[in-house]
Design goal:
334 residues, mainly alpha, Arc Repressor Mutant, subunit A, three-stranded antiparallel β-sheet, 6 strands
Length: 334
């Protein structure tokens, strides 16, 4: 009996050691990057190919750019709540006026109606168009045969654990993932597993977006450096700090023409001048790069963010993690 207890203790200890090693393995493997590439760049287009938008356009006689805005808001931004405020929480560097114009476009096309100047809701036509799109996507998911059932289940189980663990973190700005969880479709538990994976992917991406967009806020909030706390960087300034990390040379025209940001030349120039005035950025003709002070701050911020990126991956044991990574590699290599 004593020997059995010893063997059980060794087994439990070994499992704990394996589990605690996963964050280190995930960091070394760039597991989040591989997750994004496999699920967002490889799997998602197979379940939501561009032709689905064409089908919605033909059935409801709505311009494709309008349908694209509808799908962007409902599957990526704020699901079924058309709120400028919530989009700006998740993407704080986006243009407030551009988002409002997107919603006005949905309204003029009959797909949404305004509750107030900041919030809209779907009309009956909008709900029908969205339901039709979701049904097309469900049909695609049911036809998917790129992975075995066991492989799909292994990815699903890992994402369920990661999403749950990430949603419970409270030591930094982390609201978007819970909002996405709360707005799951009513039939979520009845969806094909591959479609559940895409929903979970969206939820976990929301967590990583918050971690990325608020990394300066989170780092500065934990700092005792009063000079650092007084920087008070704008959202776009922090985004430009990310764009110029690790000595990158960044053409300012890219900021001017960012299709999602849509802050224009004046918005970009204001943010660039802000960073130059604060000594974090230098500009030479049409390119910007970090100053030595900016590079030092950037390195510390990213190191802090990277350390916390994989900490909650300790909910996985080594076997789960390796099986998950194997499926990601299959998707990425096909």
């Amino acid at each position: 009996m004593k020997m059995i207890r010893i063997l059980i203790l060794i087994s439990i200890t070994g499992c704990a050691n394996e589990s605690s090693n996963v964050p280190e393995l995930a960091n070394a493997d760039d597991a989040w990057i591989k997750t994004y590439e496999a699920l967002s760049l490889k799997l998602y287009p197979q379940i939501s190919p561009p032709e689905l938008l064409d089908s919605v356009v033909l059935k409801f006689d709505v311009d494709k750019s309008v349908v694209r805005h509808l799908i962007r808001f409902t599957t990526n931004y704020t699901r079924n709540e058309f709120s400028v405020e919530k989009v700006l929480y998740r993407y704080p560097h986006y243009s407030d006026s551009a988002l409002k114009n997107d919603l006005k476009l949905l309204q003029s096309s009959g797909l949404a109606t305004n509750v107030n100047s900041e919030e809209y809701k779907l009309t009956e036509l909008g709900e029908s168009a969205l339901d039709y799109f979701y049904q097309l996507r469900k049909d695609k998911a049911q036809q998917f045969n790129g992975l075995s059932e066991d492989q799909v289940n292994s990815v699903l189980e890992v994402l369920e654990k990661l999403v749950k663990a990430a949603s419970e973190l409270t030591d930094f700005k982390n609201e978007s993932i819970q909002y996405r969880i709360d707005s799951r479709p009513e039939d979520f538990n009845r969806l094909p597993n591959v479609l559940k994976i895409l929903h979970l992917r969206g939820e976990y991406t929301a967590f990583n977006n918050d971690k990325s967009h608020y990394k300066y806020d989170n780092y500065i909030a934990r700092s005792d450096n009063q000079t650092l706390k007084s920087l008070n960087l704008s959202a776009l300034a922090k985004e430009l700090m990310s764009a110029t990390r690790e000595g990158r040379i960044y053409p300012v025209e890219r900021c001017y023409n960012q299709s999602n940001w849509r802050v224009g030349k004046s918005g970009c120039d204001v943010a660039i001048d802000e960073l130059i005035t604060k000594g974090l950025l230098v500009r030479q003709d049409s390119v910007i790069s970090q100053s030595s002070e900016g590079a030092e701050l950037s390195a510390k911020v990213w190191e802090s963010a990277d350390e916390r990126l994989y900490a909650h991956w300790d909910v996985l044991n080594t076997d789960e993690y390796r099986a998950y990574l194997e499926v990601l590699n299959i998707l990425n290599n096909n």
